[in-house]
Amino acid sequence: MTHSTAPGPDEPRDDEPGGYDPSGYDVPSVPQSADGEEDGDEALRREAGEQESSRASRHWWDRNADDYQDEHGEFLGDDRFTWCPEGVDEAEARLLGDPAELEGADVLEIGSGAAQCSRWLAARGARPVALDISYRQLQHSRRIDLGRGLEPVAVVQADAAVLPFADGSFDHACSAYGAVPFSADTERLMREVHRVLRPGGRWVFSVTHPIRWAFPDEPGVEGLTATSSYFDRTPYVEQDEQGVATYVEHHRTLGDRVRELVAAGFALLDLVEPEWPEGLEQEWGGWSPLRGEHIPGTAIFVARRNG
């Protein structure tokens, strides 16, 4: 809540992410237009495979991590576990189970950003590992830990579809608007999560509610009229003048997600569609009180790994 010569998306870096230092990492400044696209980029629907999607995500989040944390850091907090723009908080929702039972649990946060959720888990005695494809996002995790005088959260830079962990390494896995919508092969991603979980482990992830793909991504009244087919799975792509993807997001229907989970060996325990809470006036991109009153903005899948 998930734009130098650098390793590929699946390659580890030799240097561990350190504290936030704008001069310490070669991320070029990228001018942004009002709608969030890089200046000159074209937005369209077209096919985009695994490698292109992964590369675009890594570069986009490296380039935009600073602005993202500046804009949303107050809402996310440094150590809150917030599932979505509707403000669903794990402390109350308990989608991973009773917080008291998290003590000593190994938990993988996928698409962690600055590891806010992992920090909340650590405060409850869990042993979290925060994984993100963006090195710059993980630098923000280090910045927060150093600024608060905390023991740093364990971080790993990797692609969520190729998890660099042994089988059965974790008790639970979670992702709050993390890597799932940016992965071209989420069937593979689900299998990878299943592989690294222990029997009975929970896999909980939040994504933009699939119905939103039928509507313009606008917070006002223009975002309330369907203009696209819900069943069109063609990815949303932003590309530069050379046709190189700079941002990619993939759509799956609710049925697609359920089938992916079941095929990977999970049992679906719950599907949470948060209502917009009374009194929340803050907009977040296409999320707003107006739209939230009429159509769901988030889907949270709560699954358990079968034995």
From TrEMBL:
Biased composition (Basic and acidic residues): 42-58
Pfam families on file: Methyltransf_11
MF annotations from Gene Ontology: S-adenosylmethionine-dependent methyltransferase activity
GO BP field: methylation
InterPro entries, sorted: Methyltransf_11, SAM-dependent_MTases_sf
Domain Methyltransferase type span(s) in chain numbering: 108-205
Annotated region (Disordered), positions in chain: 1-58
Keywords of the record: Methyltransferase, Transferase
Coiled coil: none
Protein's UniProt keywords contain Amino-acid biosynthesis: no
PANTHER family per UniProt: METHYLTRANSFERASE
UniProt protein name: Methyltransferase family protein
Organism: Kitasatospora cineracea
